[in-house]
Amino acid sequence: MKKLILLFTFISLASCSHDADVHDYKEEKNYQGPRYMDPPAWIQGTWMDDKQRAFKFTQDDLLYKYPMQNFISTSDEIYDYESKYWKEYEQYQNPNVQEVELIDYYSLKYNCYGAPSKKFMFTRISENQIESTGFMPGIYTKQ
After folding, report:
1. Which of 39, 44, 78, 89 has minimal Cβ neighbours within 10 Å of its Cβ?
2. pLDDT tens-digit series, residues 25-81
């Protein structure tokens, strides 16, 4: 009987414990993640092509989407890359974020977890059109 009570106590304690080192800050409501990019003002907004693919630029993020899907945040992809290496290998892995901004040109390149690096390249054609020559190439119109 004592062994049964001891076993039950051990199982209860083991199920209640958690690893204090593993904390997912993204789950906190007020968490502001690291800033990886700073898109120029001229490109900020939502851009769509004739295939219903879209880019959305904010002050600190680049989001992209395919037809009938939700936007995917590049900041989240970069954060996931860093956190997966930290959790799996207990070491930091640099996502190698490279951002280039010129008068009518903006590019972003970074490493992804389990995938080749992504490179976005945009050239301003006019106030209402940009051309993507990297990931998801095409002509995009401001919405």
Report:
1. 89
2. 445 554 455 677 899 999 999 999 999 999 999 999 999 999 999 999 998 888 887
**Cα–Cα distance list, 15 to 9, 56, 90, 95, 122 (Å):** 10, 43, 23, 35, 51
Q: How far is it, in rounded angstroms, from Cα 64 to Cα 47?
A: 9
Secondary structure of 50-105 as H, E, C letters: CCCCEEEECCCCEEEECCCCCCEEHHHHHHHHHHHHHHHHCCCCCCCCEEEEECCE
The rounded distance, in Å, linking the Cα atoms of 79 and 93 is 11
55 and 133 Cβ atoms separated by less than 8 Å:
no
* Identity of the residue numbered 99: E
Q: Over the range 93-132, which residues count as b (16 or more CB within 10 Å of their CB) and which as e? A: eebebebeeeeeebbbbbbeeeeeebebbbebeeeeebeb
